[in-house]
Amino acid sequence: MDAQEVPMPIKYLALGDSYTIGESVTEPERWPNQLVDSLAKKGIQLGKPTIIATTGWRTDDLRNAMTKANLKNEYELVSLLIGVNNQYQGKSSAMYANEFEELLKWAVRLARGKKQRVFVVSIPDYGFTPFGKPKQEAISKAIDEFNEINAQITYKHGIRYFNITDISRDGLSDPTLVAADGLHPSGKMYAYWVELISKGLDIH
Fold first, then answer.
1. CATH number of the domain that 88 lies in?
2. Beta bridge partners of 78
3. How far apart are CA 152 and CA 140, in angstroms?
4. Which of 2, 118, 125, 134 stands 20 to 30 A from 170 (CA)?
5. Domain contains 71
6. What is the pLDDT of residues 26-74, one digit of tens each?
7. Four-CA torsion 148, 151, 156, 158, nearest 10 degrees
8. Range of 151's domain?
């Protein structure tokens, strides 16, 4: 009698910027790593996430890094969270729309063409941090504009979208949701993101 086959862990690729690499938090506190732990409790085994993300990256930076990484179309789960630096650095929303859609299509290819295995996370609102508080209203308005763009593109392609922006807007009322740098999310906030994402993911 053959030994029962042990299923291979799901290959997970996380694409993004400072929010995905977890600026100012430990590696286990990064939201992609927390997502792996959360899904494991539900019996869904993901391997250690492959993270292509660096603080300060815009959509074009991520695209260039993905090209250099020579990624194969071999992932069973791909996440995309990108855009805050396009906004912060004053890049046009039109350019963001074009480059975001290009990245989203690429993410689907990396997921072996299975769009149900791709999900997008909205851009958090850094206006609700000590760093952004002085310009909160302007920042929030701009973040809403960029999130409207990425949401419309995501829905157009029939891909799952998770709006974590409302969670990020608790950052001033609950300082424990902000990392020690006064700008990025804490591990606690990322845990709230993961709670939302893990409930909505349907991986078979």
1. 3.40.50.1110
2. 13, 118
3. 18
4. 118
5. yes
6. 999 999 999 999 999 999 999 999 999 999 999 999 999 999 999 999 9
7. -170
8. 12-200
Mean pLDDT of the chain, nearest integer: 95
Does residue 5 belong to any structural domain of this protein? no
CA distance 45 to 35: 11
Between the CA of residue 91 and those of 96, 125, 139, 146, what are the distances in Å?
7, 17, 14, 11
Q: What is the dihedral of CA 158, 89, 26, 9, to 10 degrees?
A: 30
**160 touches 200 (CB < 8 A):** yes
**% residues pLDDT > 90 (the chain):** 94
Cα–Cα distance between 14 and 17 in angstroms, integer?
Answer: 10
Coil, strand, or helix at residue 134?
helix
Q: What's the rounded Cα separation, in Å, for the pair 12 and 26? A: 19
- How many domains does the chain contain in total? 1
CB atoms under 10 Å from CB of 195, counted, come to: 14
- What number is the average pLDDT over the span 181-201? 97
Residue 36 domain-assigned?
A: yes
**Res 1 pLDDT > 60:** no
Reference 35, options 4, 64, 94, 78; nearest CA is 78
pLDDT band of 194, cuts 50, 70, 90: very high
